[in-house]
User: What shape does this take?
Amino acid sequence: MTRYGLFQRSEHNPIITFRDIPYACNTVFNPGATLVDGETLLLLRIEDLQGRSHLTVARSKDGITGWRIKDRPLISPDEADNPYEQFGCEDPRLTYLEDIGKWIIAYTAYSRFGAGVALATTEDFESAERLGLALAPNNKDGAMFPQKIDGRYWMLHRPVVGDVGHIWLTASFDLKHWGCVCCVIEERGGPWWDGYKVGAATIPIQTEDGWLILYHGVKQFPAGPMYRMGVALLDLEDPQRLVARLPYWVLGPHESYEMMGEVPNVVFPCGHVRKDDDLYVYYGAADTTICVAKASVSELLQSLREHGRP
Ligand code: BMA
Assistant: This one.
């Protein structure tokens, strides 16, 4: 792994490209991630040759090499007569909920109505059951917390109103009805690296200091947007309270595979796998390939203690 700052990129990057997919496609990016039976499982966002995205399962023993990729999608806009995902299923985030013994897949359902947050469940990643749209358009970046807090399920999400996109929080007793809506991480405006839009990256990570939140921040340049990753901390018992946020980004487009592609200058993480103190973050590079970078959870927390503020 090559080390710059808090995150080190794998020397195998990009770890998955369209050439690894066992059927014809355009690009593969923005994967959700989880551990299943000790193996890393990625739910890949694959863009087909019509321009629409679907979600396909990949597995690897070490999470970096030797990917075994399914030859058909787990969730695709074709298989369901679902008007809210006719333009595609994008950017999945995977959360295992012990109380129901299933993973929740939160993904962006894209249609002529705009982008909304859809949920599905799976027990084995062989088949998935749709719960439908949880949050109406325009809304993206749904990322569920891995356990109930105060008797409720919680989810980060990013509604867009006009040109403004902050990270909000919502809660539910039954995974169907969502309420208790509040804003937790704001875009910082002006020239900030996360001044234009922010959205959850991977699902929240439980630590001794609070819920560690990886998020993407967007800065608008004349040549187009720049997507980078930052970190923040929410209170463990009351995730509505922002405890700290780093002023600087921790991963941004520097390598050629992040700066060139379908959409240049994008690192867009949707999944992580934690192995003790090591955090492997899986991200889409330039909306074209999949990469991984590693950080130490204790170093991220130390940086937040030293440089973070609410
Ligand atoms: C966001 C999402 C992501 C994409 C990113 C960069 O709005 O649509 O899926 O990776 O833009 O193009």
The two ends are 32 Å apart (CA to CA). The chain has two helices and 23 strands.
